[in-house]
Predict the structure.
Amino acid sequence: MNIVFGYHSAIECWQAYGQREWLASMRPTQVRSVAVGYESSELESFIEQHPELVLPLHVLVPDADKRKNNKRLACHVCSGPLPVGSFWRIDKNCLVACPELTYLQMASQLPLIKLIELGMELCGTYQPSLEEGGGMLQRCGSLTTSNKLRRFVERMKHEYGSRKALTALEWVGHGSASPMETFLWMRLCLPVRLGGRGFKPALLNHPVELNAKGKAATGKETLRCDLFFPEHRVAVEYDSTAYHNSSDRIASDSIRRGALECQGIKVVTITRQEFFIFEEFEGKVRQIARLMGRRLRAPDAKQMQRRKELRDCLLLSGLMRYRTDAER
């Protein structure tokens, strides 16, 4: 018998990967289907052993006859063969949907903007800390890539939610190192119809090789830009409010900015306040556009409303999911 986590519970497992001891030995399998459902006694025992899990648990079952929903359990039918690697093993009695399958499953649960955000988290190098006080941790690498997500979803075009998943993947950037970088990328690079500003998708954490002057100033061979628009040689850096009062941080930022400018890169810094206060962010967008030599059209009322809705959606996400400053 296997307990197979999917949907929201799979997200919880992947966010806790590397932080929970019982998830430390997760590994991919050759399993392609949910052949046998769970035993109630097994599931109850698992819940007792892991009180930290959010209820209801979302588990996959092979057919509707095995489905049972209550306050502690939400069952989802997962029938038919899936691509090899669709499930990772947690232990001998427990599997979890791989990141790509989890993303496809959540396409039926999330609105488009939240699905894009989830895709960028899976393709990013950050995860929410489970320690008291919250915050963010850095992974050694991303759980997946936008290309892997796309290949998986294209193989599963018959599944409900696949069309929305593919649409969202058109706007999933790879390599974000923090939620705020994700939010900034979305507001600048999503299309106008989704509330973004329609800039050509920026590279996230792109390494810039420094010349001799830059190396001498920073003691580094390269610097990474939070968002980089290579065609225009413009970098957008997110500046955490958590460090604004540190003279050392201010000096370090100044050196960093100078080193990038030595490479012919124009730098725009955006603080948390400037990001969330609508008028201040609009001013930063105009500054970025000027550096690109781009003229911005005056938005109509519907476009302004969409911009505010995207800002509000990301603000709510930051408050609910990360609770503290969502910076590196």
Summary: The two ends are 41 Å apart (CA to CA). The longest helix spans residues 301-322.
